[in-house]
Structure formats: structure tokens, C-alpha cells
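User: Quick sanity check before I run a bigger batch. Here is a single chain. Can you write out its predicted 3D structure?
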Amino acid sequence: MAEAVHLRGAETLFEDVQFVRTRDGRDLALVEVVGDRAREASPRPAFLLLHGFAQNRLAFTLGPLPRLLIDRGARVFLGELRGHGDSKLPPDDVWSMADHLDFDCPALIRGTCERAGVPRIHLVGHSMGGLLGSALLARQTRFESLTLAATPLVLGAARPLVRLASLVLGPFATFAPRPKRIPMDHFLRVLSNPLAAADARGVVRALQRVTRLANPELAAPAAMREILAHADPESPAVMEELAKNAVLLRPRLCEIDLVDAVRSAECPIAAIAGSRDIFAPRAAIAPLERPGQRGPREIVEVEGGTHVDAIMGHHLPATVEHLWPFWMQTAKA
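Assistant: Done. Predicted structure follows.
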């Protein structure tokens, strides 16, 4: 059933919520964002937007990206990994990064292709979603393009504070008795008001500068606050693997070498990096700039950008304008 989600200009956007089933029997939400104006019936480029760590589809629906893509004729789908958004699991169920990679992503990609009537999709992954997209390059070729938004291919690169924090968070995620969930939702809810506060001063301003999670000068503060306040609990196994990568500066996911996967991919790969992002600065996507890439590469660096505003900031109209020909080049080939 379609539900109105928010307004963009003169047209209402709706969510068409459906579910896809993974090979291990989990039901995942795959949501198409649609407008109230009729579109031509011929196949249109399909974009699958995949959220990051402890997030869900609100990271995209509260920002301008779906509207910007729809206005260019794209069909836009939002996938929610198990344990996130409407893809809830029973409280005693656990999951790992391998579950996302082996089961969730293939089901969401297959569902997007089937609903859009296309053989391949454009994947835009935020943070952890981009890491999963990078790993998928080594396993399948159903990408027209891949866009890494605030994605730390080399987590902890040029950011010793992230590596130091990971030394603590990694063991925390494995305490006995092992918790079923890490309460990232509570943590981010507490931080949502100060991190999204415009014209912050004193301690609040210092917190924004230290975390560099959100920059209210570069995105709508109210939307940013909602995204942070409605995060999801996260899996200890997922946190453990990400923390290990940061400590060791090891760009691997489920034993897939992300640097090699990116280098060997023939599809266009773009990246959006914020100059002030503590988790995914430009140094974290340096592998894209190394020689020997088999396909076209493009990097957009947002001056002053941080982690969350990479996918919902004021830069997006100009960024989409810049990247659209890059994304579409395979269709013209």
C-alpha cells in the first residue's frame, strides 16, 4: 500500500512498501518512492539506495536525493537490511555482515531489477551500504554504476581518533554474555539534538566538531535530527567487523579485498566525500584514485561536509547534476 511520506515542491511523494524474501527466509522492506504524476511505461534507470550502519530508509526519504533522481526520470528504491527499518527481526535473532552480503543485498537487488524491469541497477550506498556495494563488485555484475557516499573503503585512514575508538568498541561488541543488539538507537537519539543544533556554541559546538557526524550548516537541521533520532539498534557482529577493519586499516569485508574489488570493476564508480568527515574522508577512498582502475571513476568532495549530510545535504542538487552523465554513460555505450 502506498503512503505519502513528504512534500517536494508541488508534487507529493509516496512510499510503495513491498517485501522481498532472502534465501534464508527473512523478509526485507524494498520501498519504491513514487510521485503522483504518471511516467512513461518504458524502462527507466533504476536506483537502489542502501542505508548505512544503524540507519534505515529515513536517511534518504528525509533528504532531497529521491526527488532529484525521480525528476530526472529514474525509478528510486530504498532497501532496508535485516534488523533495520521495516525489516525487523525477532529480539533473539542475530545477524552479521555476511548475512547482509550473502542474503540481503542479493534479494534487494533482485527485487529492484524485477520491479523496475531492468537487468542492472545503479546502487548508491551510504557508509556501510557502500562497503557492501564494494564487496558485491567481486561477486556479481548487476550494477550500471556504484556510488559510495561517505564510504570508508579504508576505515580509519588519516583519522587516528577513529582507530582509537575502535580499539574500545571492538571488545565492547564481544563482551560476555554477548548482547543481541548494540543500542545505537539510544546513543544517537541522545546526540540528535546537539549534533543538529544550528548556530551551536560552547560545548555543543565542540561536540559537533569532534564527532563530525553531522553539519547543520550544510543540511536541513530538522531532517538531520530526525534521521539521528530514529536510528536502529545494531548487530554486535557487524560492529566488531567494522572495528577490526579500522584498527588494522584492513579494507576487507567477509574476506573480500575491497581495494581489489573496486580496482577490477568495469562499471562506473563514483564517491561523495566530506572534507570534514571523520569516518570517511577523502583519504578513506584513496584506492579509487590509484592507477590501474578498469573502469571510470569520479570523486565529489564536499567542502565542510561530514558523514550524514553526504546523502541529504544542500550540495545534492549540484552533485546529482554533476554525476548524472557519469552514471548514464554505460547506457550510452
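The longest strand covers residues 11-21.

User: Great, the batch can go ahead then.
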